[in-house]
Design brief:
alpha/beta, two-stranded antiparallel ribbon, 9 helices, TIM Barrel
Protein backbone atom coordinates (compact mmCIF):
# COMPACT_ATOMS: atom_id res chain seq x y z
CA UNK A 1 0.00 0.00 0.00
CA UNK A 2 1.16 3.53 -0.67
CA UNK A 3 0.44 4.54 2.89
CA UNK A 4 3.74 4.00 4.66
CA UNK A 5 4.61 4.44 8.31
CA UNK A 6 7.47 5.84 10.33
CA UNK A 7 8.46 4.89 13.86
CA UNK A 8 10.93 7.00 15.82
CA UNK A 9 12.97 4.78 18.13
CA UNK A 10 14.04 6.30 21.45
CA UNK A 11 16.43 4.70 23.91
CA UNK A 12 15.73 6.03 27.44
CA UNK A 13 19.42 5.74 28.33
CA UNK A 14 20.48 7.91 25.39
CA UNK A 15 17.53 10.28 25.18
CA UNK A 16 17.88 12.33 28.37
CA UNK A 17 18.16 15.95 29.50
CA UNK A 18 18.59 18.41 26.65
CA UNK A 19 18.42 15.64 24.06
CA UNK A 20 15.03 14.55 25.40
CA UNK A 21 13.75 18.15 25.47
CA UNK A 22 14.90 18.76 21.88
CA UNK A 23 13.45 15.46 20.74
CA UNK A 24 10.05 16.11 22.32
CA UNK A 25 9.93 19.57 20.77
CA UNK A 26 10.63 18.05 17.34
CA UNK A 27 8.05 15.28 17.85
CA UNK A 28 5.33 17.72 18.90
CA UNK A 29 5.75 19.65 15.65
CA UNK A 30 6.25 16.59 13.45
CA UNK A 31 4.31 13.63 14.80
CA UNK A 32 5.38 10.19 13.50
CA UNK A 33 3.01 7.25 13.23
CA UNK A 34 4.60 5.53 16.23
CA UNK A 35 7.24 6.02 18.87
CA UNK A 36 9.21 2.89 19.75
CA UNK A 37 10.83 2.82 23.20
CA UNK A 38 13.63 0.45 24.15
CA UNK A 39 17.19 -0.60 23.54
CA UNK A 40 19.54 -3.56 23.72
CA UNK A 41 20.89 -2.53 27.11
CA UNK A 42 18.47 -0.04 28.69
CA UNK A 43 18.82 0.59 32.43
CA UNK A 44 16.59 3.64 32.88
CA UNK A 45 12.97 3.33 33.98
CA UNK A 46 10.79 3.19 30.91
CA UNK A 47 7.58 3.84 32.86
CA UNK A 48 8.38 7.48 33.57
CA UNK A 49 9.93 7.90 30.13
CA UNK A 50 6.78 6.67 28.41
CA UNK A 51 4.57 8.84 30.64
CA UNK A 52 6.50 11.94 29.58
CA UNK A 53 6.18 11.02 25.91
CA UNK A 54 2.45 10.37 26.12
CA UNK A 55 1.88 13.62 27.98
CA UNK A 56 3.76 15.62 25.38
CA UNK A 57 3.31 13.87 22.02
CA UNK A 58 0.14 12.68 20.30
CA UNK A 59 1.51 9.38 19.02
CA UNK A 60 1.14 5.70 19.89
CA UNK A 61 3.99 4.43 22.06
CA UNK A 62 5.16 0.87 21.39
CA UNK A 63 7.68 -1.00 23.51
CA UNK A 64 10.65 -2.35 21.56
CA UNK A 65 12.20 -4.47 24.31
CA UNK A 66 15.80 -5.58 24.55
CA UNK A 67 14.89 -7.90 27.43
CA UNK A 68 12.05 -8.74 29.80
CA UNK A 69 12.87 -5.84 32.13
CA UNK A 70 11.70 -3.40 29.46
CA UNK A 71 7.98 -3.96 29.94
CA UNK A 72 5.52 -1.23 30.87
CA UNK A 73 1.73 -1.01 31.00
CA UNK A 74 2.07 2.70 30.20
CA UNK A 75 2.64 1.88 26.53
CA UNK A 76 -0.04 1.21 23.93
CA UNK A 77 1.45 -2.10 22.82
CA UNK A 78 4.46 -4.39 23.01
CA UNK A 79 6.45 -5.89 20.15
CA UNK A 80 6.94 -9.44 21.40
CA UNK A 81 10.23 -10.04 19.62
CA UNK A 82 11.53 -13.50 18.84
CA UNK A 83 15.04 -13.44 17.35
CA UNK A 84 14.27 -16.03 14.70
CA UNK A 85 17.46 -15.40 12.73
CA UNK A 86 19.60 -16.55 15.66
CA UNK A 87 20.13 -19.88 17.35
CA UNK A 88 20.18 -18.61 20.93
CA UNK A 89 17.22 -20.21 22.70
CA UNK A 90 17.17 -17.41 25.30
CA UNK A 91 16.05 -14.89 22.69
CA UNK A 92 13.99 -17.32 20.66
CA UNK A 93 11.75 -18.42 23.55
CA UNK A 94 13.53 -18.21 26.91
CA UNK A 95 12.80 -14.55 27.66
CA UNK A 96 9.22 -15.11 26.55
CA UNK A 97 8.64 -17.99 28.96
CA UNK A 98 10.00 -15.91 31.84
CA UNK A 99 7.78 -12.94 31.01
CA UNK A 100 4.62 -14.60 29.64
CA UNK A 101 2.45 -14.67 32.76
CA UNK A 102 3.23 -11.12 33.85
CA UNK A 103 2.70 -9.78 30.33
CA UNK A 104 -0.62 -11.57 29.93
CA UNK A 105 -1.81 -10.35 33.33
CA UNK A 106 -0.79 -6.79 32.49
CA UNK A 107 -3.38 -6.58 29.72
CA UNK A 108 -1.01 -4.80 27.33
CA UNK A 109 -1.56 -5.46 23.64
CA UNK A 110 1.04 -7.96 22.43
CA UNK A 111 2.26 -8.14 18.82
CA UNK A 112 4.24 -11.33 18.02
CA UNK A 113 7.15 -10.24 15.85
CA UNK A 114 9.71 -12.26 13.93
CA UNK A 115 12.94 -10.35 14.54
CA UNK A 116 15.60 -10.93 11.88
CA UNK A 117 19.10 -9.54 12.32
CA UNK A 118 20.90 -8.53 9.11
CA UNK A 119 24.57 -7.63 8.75
CA UNK A 120 24.84 -3.83 8.83
CA UNK A 121 28.62 -3.74 8.24
CA UNK A 122 29.16 -3.07 11.95
CA UNK A 123 28.96 -5.19 15.06
CA UNK A 124 25.68 -4.19 16.69
CA UNK A 125 24.64 -4.16 20.33
CA UNK A 126 21.88 -6.69 19.68
CA UNK A 127 24.42 -9.02 18.04
CA UNK A 128 26.68 -8.81 21.09
CA UNK A 129 23.96 -8.99 23.76
CA UNK A 130 22.09 -11.87 22.09
CA UNK A 131 25.28 -13.73 21.10
CA UNK A 132 23.89 -14.37 17.63
CA UNK A 133 25.25 -13.86 14.14
CA UNK A 134 23.39 -11.70 11.63
CA UNK A 135 22.33 -12.98 8.23
CA UNK A 136 24.94 -11.96 5.60
CA UNK A 137 23.89 -9.07 3.37
CA UNK A 138 24.11 -11.15 0.21
CA UNK A 139 21.98 -14.03 1.52
CA UNK A 140 18.48 -12.78 0.78
CA UNK A 141 17.21 -16.34 0.35
CA UNK A 142 18.11 -17.11 3.97
CA UNK A 143 16.30 -13.96 5.08
CA UNK A 144 13.25 -15.03 3.07
CA UNK A 145 13.26 -18.57 4.49
CA UNK A 146 13.56 -17.15 8.00
CA UNK A 147 10.67 -14.75 7.41
CA UNK A 148 8.47 -17.50 6.00
CA UNK A 149 9.29 -19.70 9.00
CA UNK A 150 8.20 -16.84 11.28
CA UNK A 151 4.98 -16.47 9.30
CA UNK A 152 4.24 -20.20 9.55
CA UNK A 153 4.91 -20.06 13.29
CA UNK A 154 2.16 -17.48 13.63
CA UNK A 155 4.07 -14.21 13.90
CA UNK A 156 2.15 -11.05 13.03
CA UNK A 157 5.05 -8.93 11.79
CA UNK A 158 8.52 -9.28 10.28
CA UNK A 159 11.23 -6.93 11.53
CA UNK A 160 14.40 -6.74 9.40
CA UNK A 161 17.07 -5.19 11.62
CA UNK A 162 20.54 -3.99 10.59
CA UNK A 163 21.28 -2.86 14.14
CA UNK A 164 21.34 0.50 15.86
CA UNK A 165 23.99 2.75 14.33
CA UNK A 166 24.68 0.30 11.50
CA UNK A 167 26.98 1.55 8.77
CA UNK A 168 24.64 0.17 6.11
CA UNK A 169 20.86 -0.37 6.15
CA UNK A 170 19.12 -3.61 5.19
CA UNK A 171 19.76 -4.16 1.45
CA UNK A 172 16.82 -3.12 -0.73
CA UNK A 173 16.94 -6.36 -2.73
CA UNK A 174 16.57 -8.30 0.53
CA UNK A 175 13.56 -6.20 1.56
CA UNK A 176 12.03 -6.78 -1.86
CA UNK A 177 12.67 -10.52 -1.71
CA UNK A 178 11.07 -10.88 1.74
CA UNK A 179 8.19 -8.59 0.77
CA UNK A 180 7.32 -10.69 -2.26
CA UNK A 181 7.68 -13.95 -0.40
CA UNK A 182 5.57 -13.28 2.69
CA UNK A 183 2.20 -11.67 3.32
CA UNK A 184 3.19 -10.25 6.70
CA UNK A 185 3.80 -6.51 7.21
CA UNK A 186 7.50 -5.68 7.11
CA UNK A 187 9.31 -3.33 9.46
CA UNK A 188 12.82 -2.24 8.51
CA UNK A 189 15.30 -0.57 10.85
CA UNK A 190 18.95 0.13 11.44
CA UNK A 191 21.44 2.21 9.46
CA UNK A 192 18.89 4.57 7.92
CA UNK A 193 20.35 8.06 8.10
CA UNK A 194 18.74 9.92 5.19
CA UNK A 195 15.27 10.46 3.74
CA UNK A 196 16.53 8.88 0.52
CA UNK A 197 17.37 5.64 2.35
CA UNK A 198 13.92 5.75 3.96
CA UNK A 199 12.29 6.12 0.54
CA UNK A 200 14.42 3.31 -0.88
CA UNK A 201 13.18 0.99 1.88
CA UNK A 202 9.58 1.96 1.13
CA UNK A 203 10.12 1.41 -2.60
CA UNK A 204 11.48 -2.08 -1.86
CA UNK A 205 8.38 -3.04 0.12
CA UNK A 206 8.86 -1.94 3.73
CA UNK A 207 5.55 -1.08 5.37
CA UNK A 208 7.23 0.74 8.24
CA UNK A 209 10.70 2.15 8.70
CA UNK A 210 12.24 2.65 12.15
CA UNK A 211 14.78 5.43 12.61
CA UNK A 212 16.43 6.32 15.88
CA UNK A 213 20.18 6.63 16.17
CA UNK A 214 20.55 9.75 14.03
CA UNK A 215 17.93 11.62 16.06
CA UNK A 216 20.04 11.31 19.21
CA UNK A 217 22.42 13.91 17.76
CA UNK A 218 20.16 15.61 15.21
CA UNK A 219 16.56 15.63 16.50
CA UNK A 220 15.68 18.38 14.04
CA UNK A 221 15.88 15.77 11.27
CA UNK A 222 12.67 14.19 12.57
CA UNK A 223 10.76 16.75 10.50
CA UNK A 224 12.50 15.63 7.31
CA UNK A 225 11.68 11.96 7.88
CA UNK A 226 8.07 12.60 8.90
CA UNK A 227 7.56 14.78 5.83
CA UNK A 228 9.10 12.14 3.53
CA UNK A 229 6.88 9.44 4.98
CA UNK A 230 3.64 11.39 4.83
CA UNK A 231 4.28 12.45 1.25
CA UNK A 232 5.41 9.07 0.00
CA UNK A 233 3.30 7.82 -2.92
CA UNK A 234 0.63 10.51 -2.66
CA UNK A 235 0.33 10.64 -6.45
CA UNK A 236 -0.53 6.94 -6.74
CA UNK A 237 -3.46 6.53 -4.39
CA UNK A 238 -6.91 8.07 -4.63
CA UNK A 239 -9.02 8.10 -1.52
CA UNK A 240 -12.78 8.66 -1.51
CA UNK A 241 -13.20 10.10 1.98
CA UNK A 242 -16.92 9.49 2.24
CA UNK A 243 -16.95 5.85 1.24
CA UNK A 244 -13.42 5.08 2.49
CA UNK A 245 -12.73 3.34 -0.82
CA UNK A 246 -9.11 3.14 -1.98
CA UNK A 247 -8.29 2.55 -5.63
CA UNK A 248 -5.08 0.77 -6.60
CA UNK A 249 -3.09 0.53 -9.79
CA UNK A 250 -2.43 -3.20 -9.69
CA UNK A 251 -2.71 -6.42 -7.75
CA UNK A 252 0.59 -5.87 -5.93
CA UNK A 253 -0.78 -2.63 -4.50
CA UNK A 254 -3.93 -4.41 -3.31
CA UNK A 255 -1.90 -7.13 -1.61
CA UNK A 256 0.17 -4.49 0.14
CA UNK A 257 -3.05 -2.79 1.25
CA UNK A 258 -4.32 -6.04 2.75
CA UNK A 259 -1.03 -6.46 4.58
CA UNK A 260 -1.30 -2.91 5.91
CA UNK A 261 -4.84 -3.55 7.12
CA UNK A 262 -3.64 -6.57 9.08
CA UNK A 263 -0.89 -4.44 10.56
CA UNK A 264 -3.32 -1.73 11.63
CA UNK A 265 -5.58 -4.29 13.25
CA UNK A 266 -2.62 -5.47 15.31
CA UNK A 267 -1.85 -1.96 16.49
Amino acid sequence: MNKKMLAVLLDPDQCRGRILSSTIAALKSNVPDFIFVGGSHTNSSIDSFIEVLKDEVNSEVIIFPGNISQISTKANALLYLSLVSGRNAEFLIGQHVNSAISIKNSGIEVIPTGYILIDGAKHSSVEYISNTRPIPRDKKEIALSTAIAAELLGMSLIYLEAGSGANLPVPVDMIECVGHGTTLPIIVGGGIKTAEQLTNAFDAGADMVVVGNIFETEPQKIAEFVHATKNYGVDFVEVASESKIILYDDEDEFQKFQRYQRFKRNL
